[in-house]
Amino acid sequence: MMSAAILCVMIAAGCQEGAQIGTAIGALAGAGIGQLAGGDSEATLIGAAIGAGAGYIFGNESDKEKTQDQLYAVNDRVNSQIVNVTNSNGSIVQVRLRRQNVGWVGTRGEYYPTLPTEDQLRPVYGF
Question: How far apart are CA 2 and CA 8, in angstroms?
Answer without folding.
Answer: 10
